[in-house]
């Protein structure tokens, strides 16, 4: 009798828990509307929405390669599978044409679609929840006045049980802190504007923060460095590994132009971010730079003196121990493929904008960015221009790229050796995530 009572209690508790979860997971549908006419929106609000969409990098994640703007289909690779950006043009059948302003606000603030479905956090509503209602209305006005495009996004490629969207209600219960950004009264207006943008619409921490096993940002480690599509997004806090400390002016230059001479050229997922920011006023870029510089403990005033230039590249050695042979081979590859641009006084008139002894990619705790730059090259901030650096994926083997990467790390950064470089190169070449 006691066993049956216990079993009945367990079943009752399980049923109550399932019912409670169902109540938590259920979200109502918001009634569809007729697509509003362009004349329904104020021109100034549309213009403000355009600026906000550029800050949010909306175009990149909601446009397939070679596709129509905002028509969806961009494949976002995550550790759990591939999530495709949705169509956010005002097409009534495949886009958001039947979404009201309230449906749009709910998606941004709560991660719930118009039909009541929970959205995957590949759409960073854990940041967008900080956006004000006013800015959401401006974004809505801008998107609803774009060209409608009929385009179905490809289905997401996720394993079971992740295709069961009600589970996302549990994820939100654990990790979503909903609510608009609240200004810090002890800080300046510029700092608060930068914090609002960086933590909200610009969602800097979505890439620059490490993730836990469930894909949520690790608590207490905001801006401590993370991964995005196989690239390492470096730490934007006091643990930054940059050989030359960042300043507010250096951060502004990098976000404005894609280049900081003492640090890096915007590459990988950061390149389209900078291209989109070209449509954003200087004041907002300066505000983000002010906020991030403060988090990094950046010094006031001009940048510190850069480190002394490295000695000339060593001559490759023939014979010797295995380690010496590897270094000799790598030095020979560098002399033939890299020194023409990366050594002072090289034979080419063009010189790389960032000296390798200052390159953030070679000072990072992992080799992801250095390897991807060698394999795939580096584009200019202007995507229509010629590449800033060609890729060597077709010229060098995995072993050669690994040896060159190890040699560059030793010569230009002096940091501890990176492990398993050949495996890292194979992952980068295949396009698999290094996360």
Notes on the protein architecture:
- The termini are far apart.
- With 435 residues, this protein is mainly alpha-helical.
- Helix content is 42%, strand content 4%.
- It has three domains: 148 residues; 108 residues, Cytochrome c-like domain (Cytochrome Bc1 Complex, Chain D, domain 2); 109 residues, Orthogonal Bundle (Cytochrome Bc1 Complex, Chain D, domain 2).
- Helix 2 packs across helix 6 and helix 13 packs across helix 17.
- The strands form three sheets. Strands 1-2 form a two-stranded antiparallel ribbon. Strands 3-4 form a two-stranded antiparallel ribbon. A two-stranded antiparallel sheet has the order 5-6.
- 40% of the residues are buried.
- The chain has 18 helices and six strands.
- A hairpin with a 2-residue loop joins strand 1 and strand 2.
Keywords:
two-stranded antiparallel sheet; Cytochrome Bc1 Complex, Chain D, domain 2; 18 helices; globular; 435 residues; 3 domains; mainly alpha
Number of domains: 3
Structural Rg? 25 Å
Sheet with most strands: 2 strands, antiparallel
The sequence of SSEs as H and E is HHHEEHHHHHHEEHEEHHHHHHHH
Helix residue percentage: 40-55%
Number of E-state strands: 6
Uncertain ranges: 5-20, 315-321
Principal-axes shape call:
globular
The CA-CA distance between the termini, in Å, is 53 Å
- The total of helices stands at 18
Q: How much strand content do the residues show?
A: under 5%
Mean pLDDT level: 88
- What class do helices, strands and sheet pairing give? mainly alpha
Main location: membrane
Keywords: Cell membrane, Heme, Iron, Membrane, Metal-binding, Plasmid, Repeat, Signal
Pfam families: Cytochrom_C (PF00034)
Subcellular location: Cell membrane
